[in-house]
Amino acid sequence: MNVVAIVGRPNVGKSTLFNRIIERREAIVESEPGVTRDRLYADATWNGKVFTLIDTGGIVPGSDELFDKAIREQAELAISEADSIIFVTDGVDGITPSERDIATLLRSSKKPVTLVVNKCDNPERDLNASEFYELGLGDPFPVSALSGRSTGDFLDNVVEPLSEGAADEDTRLKIAIVGRPNVGKSSLTNALLGKDRMIVTPVAGTTRDAIDSILTYYGREMILIDTAGLRRKSAVHENIEMYSVLRTMRAIERCDIAIVMLDAERGLEHQDKQIIHDVIEARKGIIIAVNKWDAVEKDHKTADTFTKELHDQMAMFEYVPVIFISALTKQRITKVVEMAEQIQERRATRTSTSFLNDTLLDEITKTPPPSVKGNDLRINYITQVNTEPPVYAFFSNHPDLIPDSYKRFLERALRRHVELEGVPVSFIFRKKNRRREDE
């Protein structure tokens, strides 16, 4: 996953530029300095390159204010994770002492930096950009984030060092252990790698955010992506949260199967739901591992009760398996690996077209789609067009009118006939006369 960070002192237009690049309004834009306190993340694309854009708070070098220190530390964390950096300055104010300090920080990072001089609303103001050569960060790009003037020129420079995102040719199963901080990710990783019958060899991670291990389990080699543990200490709790979120995003993108760890004593929390949603959105295999089960199983709550409570809170994701473990006592930890292998096998399996049509068309006949806008909807043909993740194509006379509620019915019907536990799936709907293109 390519990461681009926007940095600069307060009130130079970073959030406006962020919104301009992602082409929607997500960052809060106010004239009051320091409005952007937390990191904002969004996916963006330019010239065919996809990247995650980070909007950071304004850096105030040398300030002893706790708030300023927090923003500075968060920005430094974003810089450490970034593959390319956008340094935003103000063409009206000119170079300030803060920007000289930030430029020093950026030069020492050895990262590709694109220097943007904002608020250049006309060609006359473009002349103001020339003084920014003094910062030693290459050619300055005069732009107007507010109007979008000249933003395309600097984006070409931003994405130039980014990777094309070519598919990873390593076919070994990749398992990521993810979850919010302090749920026991490092304990599970260490427990798995410490088993006598598992041979582990450390290998360099393909990204800076994780150390991968080669795990040989009964002769089957796989890669364990470890997102646990930070490379640095942080005095500000929110900074650890930000760093954890970014590492989790990268791990999910790289893995085949994500093991989402929950704390049995705390149950399902908001951040857990977000991580589960991110895994499913990425269409990766998923297992929920409830850790510290040894601490609560002596109480009145049973595994069945806990699982029902989880599924009640995630009604659309009942296909996600739940396993109860203790990383501390190593209870059922090898079962997690076995489940991951089984789910990956399901992700890679192609269901025959004849089976899909024989089973699902019968279900559709019994429960046909509703009429929409006076149109009788029909689904005539079904085929699987991709694996890892599985993608199914439904051919209809009015594919654009199929309601979401009926799509959910189709997914439930599919899962009744095809073993897809732990496997998110995708549906596409096409005009029926195009079906032969996908056979």
Brief synopsis:
The chain is α/β, with parallel strands linked by helices and 439 residues long. The chain is built from 12 helices and 16 strands. The strands form 3 sheets. Strands 8-9-10-7-11-12-13 form a 7-stranded mixed beta sheet, with helices on both faces.
Share in helix = 25-40%
CATH topology tier name of the largest domain: Rossmann fold
Low-confidence blocks of residues: 25-39, 195-210, 229-236, 434-439
Q: Within the largest sheet, what's the order of strands?
A: 8-9-10-7-11-12-13
CATH class of the largest domain: Alpha Beta
The chain-level mean pLDDT equals 81
Q: Give the biggest beta sheet.
A: 7 strands, mixed
Number of helices: 12
Rg (CA only):
25 Å
Structure report:
The chain is of the alpha/beta class. The chain folds into three domains: 2-159, Rossmann fold (3-Layer(aba) Sandwich), CATH 3.40.50; 173-347, P-loop containing nucleotide triphosphate hydrolases (Rossmann fold, 3-Layer(aba) Sandwich); 353-438, K homology (KH) domain (GMP Synthetase, Chain A, domain 3). The protein is 33% helix and 23% strand. It has helices at 14-22, 66-81, 97-109, 123-126, 151-159, 185-193, 237-254, 270-281, 303-313, 333-348, 353-366, 404-417, and strands spanning 2-7, 40-46, 49-55, 84-90, 113-118, 140-142, 173-178, 198-203, 211-217, 220-226, 257-263, 285-291, 322-324, 379-386, 391-396, 426-431. The strands form three sheets. It has a seven-stranded mixed β-sheet with strand order 8-9-10-7-11-12-13, with helices on both faces. The protein has a six-stranded mixed β-sheet with strand order 2-3-1-4-5-6, sandwiched between helices. Strands 14-15-16 form a three-stranded mixed β-sheet. A hairpin with a 7-residue loop joins β8 (198-203) and β9 (211-217). α2 (66-81) packs parallel to α7.
